[in-house]
Design a protein that fits this description.
The chain has about 230 residues and is an alpha/beta fold. It has a single domain, classed as P-loop containing nucleotide triphosphate hydrolases (Rossmann fold, 3-Layer(aba) Sandwich), CATH 3.40.50. About 55% of the residues lie in helices and about 10% in strands. It has a 5-stranded parallel β-sheet with strand order 2-3-1-4-5, sandwiched between helices. Helix 3 crosses helix 4 and helix 7 packs across helix 8. It is globular, with a radius of gyration of 19 Å.
Length: about 230
């Protein structure tokens, strides 16, 4: 039985994506599979061996020379041939990683599961927060995602003011979070089946609202609740 249902839960850091994803996974088990669709390999439940190797090398270099020095050397390397080759290899591996996870998602759907994405590459990398100043490899990556990468059937955006997000996690800056929020909202206007939820509500209220949207899609895909055919 085919499910053909995918849901992406997106939003800036501090919006509660991972927490709500876990709650949804518990509520809709065993009809739902979860996939982390972000760039943090340490947080990924699946990843290519090459991606884990790159992450290991990055941590090793950062530990030996200091993260700040490693970033500075990498930035300087972008200007020379070695840096360009590394950027090209990194782009190729990143694109391979994204398609690997998409193929895995399709394999789940063919077996009758709905798939819930924690984050989504398309939305994370489509955010125009650099004013067009990104390196060529990153702009190429953004273009490939925008025009070729499959879109989820439903996108749930957890929204909150930048000040609230910063107070929750103290990551990035208020200015950067505000810019990202505007980009999410702009992308939402260009995206079909985009739902915006107020993430300043109590967690239970955020979950209930997200669950109602997921339930409509999941139950529609299955016809009636129950264990999908072919479930392990």
């Amino acid at each position: 039985m085919f499910s053909l249902a995918s849901i992406a839960l997106i939003g800036p850091d501090g919006a509660g994506k991972t927490t709500v994803t876990r709650m949804l996974a518990q509520s809709f088990a065993p009809r739902l599979k979860c996939l982390y669709m972000g760039i943090n390999i340490a947080s990924s439940n699946v990843a290519l061996p090459t991606s884990r190797m790159v992450e290991y090398v990055k941590r090793l270099l950062a530990g030996n020379r200091g993260a700040g020095q490693a970033r500075e050397e990498f930035s300087q390397g972008r200007e020379n041939r070695k840096g360009k080759l590394w950027a090209s290899a990194r782009l190729a591996n990143r694109f391979a990683e994204e398609w690997y996870r998409q193929l895995l998602s399709w394999s789940y759907q063919v077996r009758g599961y709905a798939v819930l994405y924690d984050r989504h590459f398309l939305f994370d990398f489509s955010l125009d927060t650099d004013g067009g100043r990104a390196p060529l490899s990153e702009r190429t990556h953004r273009w490939l995602l925008t025009y070729f990468y499959p879109r989820p059937d439903l996108v749930i955006y957890l929204d909150a003011p930048a000040e609230v997000l910063y107070a929750r996690k103290h990551e990035s800056t208020v200015e950067d979070l505000s810019c990202r929020r505007k980009s999410y909202i702009r992308l939402g206007k260009e995206t079909a089946n985009f739902v915006q939820i107020d993430a300043t509500q109590p967690l239970e209220a955020v979950y209930n609202e997200a669950a109602s949207h997921v339930a409509r899609l999941v139950d529609k895909g299955y016809g009636t609740p129950g264990i999908p055919r072919g479930a392990d």
